[in-house]
């Protein structure tokens, strides 16, 4: 356990909740999404290797067609719709990247798509969603308000709600990234992922734990909105205030009626850490100067955790998942100059 652990998993719960997403579900997702999501490389990082004292890799999810891993879950969900559901169309709520992924996949499949967003979602992300041909509905000052709007419109407009994380198809889709890591870095000992609603952490953890290999899953949250962490500490999903963060994609709660990701993260994730906006900004600068890679704030949180680690905190080989690069170019420049 590292000095920075804010929460530690325990295997005690495994008997309590059957895991909602099986290895077979994730393998089925891998076959289903192959034409829409790409298989991303795990790039070796010598700068990070020095920090963790052993091999380190970055999984480059910004190479996905929408610039973030979310296309995996969105593709798996939409490709599993019935013909009737396809005819009706879909609605979703998003901090940006999920909405863009759903809009992208919906366009490929020729479906109607509505994306509800809060006023916290950056302009560049809204424009990208509109460019995919989706209808955008900006409602409320936070993600929870946008969620309410999406729920209401799903009912009145007869659209299928595509949850950004709390859906077994979405979780299985995100888990395909874990299967790729198992193949590409067969001796991986630690996978570090960003944590918001927990679809990514739950899917990757389900894939890795099913492999029965000794792999530690460490999830990193932003201290500006650690909804999953606070909920785990409370023993149930709770409301957590959302503050603007450089990691804008990590905003929003986990849903008081959370059905899947809360239990899966509790039972399958080994450790949660929290990082500050200053640490995230420093990590974003590190990734650019050392690796010449552009990432958005949310994608820099695993790097932020690795940069403050001391030997032994993360057992190598370590894989850090760089989840996306959808940052406003002006904001990126400002952070680099700071
Ligand atoms: C959505 C998102 C996350 C967090 O994923 P969850 O499944 O909500 O935990 C991390 N990084 C980026 C870039 C995202 O878009």
How would you characterize this protein structure?
This protein is 44% helix and 15% strand. The chain is globular, with a radius of gyration of 18 Å. α6 links the parallel β5 (113-117) and β6. The model has no long low-confidence stretch (mean pLDDT 94). The protein is built from 14 helices and eleven strands. The strands form two sheets. It has a seven-stranded mixed β-sheet with strand order 1-10-9-8-11-3-2, with helices on both faces. It has a four-stranded parallel β-sheet with strand order 6-5-4-7, sandwiched between helices. It is α/β, with parallel strands linked by helices. The longest helix is centred in the middle third of the chain and has 17 residues, at 168-184. 57% of the residues are buried. Pyridoxal-5'-phosphate is lined by residues 68, 70, 97-98, 165, 194-201, 249-250, 296, 298-299, 323-324.
């Amino acid at each position: 356990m590292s000095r920075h652990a804010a929460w530690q998993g325990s295997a005690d719960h495994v008997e309590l909740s059957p895991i909602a997403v099986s290895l077979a579900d994730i393998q089925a997702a891998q076959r289903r999404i192959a034409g829409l999501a790409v298989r991303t490389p795990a790039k070796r990082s010598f700068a990070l290797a020095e920090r963790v004292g052993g091999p380190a890799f970055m999984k480059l999810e910004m190479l996905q067609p929408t610039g973030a891993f979310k296309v995996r879950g969105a593709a798996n969900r939409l490709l599993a719709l019935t013909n009737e559901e396809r005819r009706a169309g879909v609605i979703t709520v998003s901090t940006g990247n999920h909405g863009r992924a759903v809009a992208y996949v919906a366009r490929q499949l020729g479906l109607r798509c509505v994306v509800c967003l809060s006023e916290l979602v950056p302009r560049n992300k809204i424009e990208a969603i509109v460019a995919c041909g989706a209808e955008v509905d900006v409602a409320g000052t936070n993600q929870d308000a946008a969620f309410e709007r999406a729920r209401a419109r799903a009912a009145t407009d007869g659209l299928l709600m595509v949850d950004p994380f709390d859906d077994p198809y979405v979780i299985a889709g995100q888990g395909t990234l874990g299967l790729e890591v198992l193949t590409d870095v067969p001796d991986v000992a630690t996978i570090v992922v960003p944590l918001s609603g927990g679809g990514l952490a739950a899917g990757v953890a389900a894939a890795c734990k099913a492999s029965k290999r000794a792999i530690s899953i460490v999830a990193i949250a932003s201290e500006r909105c650690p909804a999953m962490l606070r909920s785990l500490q409370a023993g149930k999903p709770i409301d957590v205030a959302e503050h603007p963060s450089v990691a804008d994609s990590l905003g929003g709660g986990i849903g008081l009626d959370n059905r899947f990701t809360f239990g899966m993260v509790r039972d399958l994730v080994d450790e949660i850490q929290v990082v500050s906006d200053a640490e995230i900004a420093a990590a974003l600068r590190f990734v650019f100067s050392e690796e010449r890679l552009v990432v958005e704030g949310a994608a820099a949180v695993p790097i932020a955790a690795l940069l403050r680690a001391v030997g032994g905190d993360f057992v190598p080989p370590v894989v850090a998942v760089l989840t996306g690069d959808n940052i406003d170019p002006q904001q990126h420049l400002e952070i680099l100059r700071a």
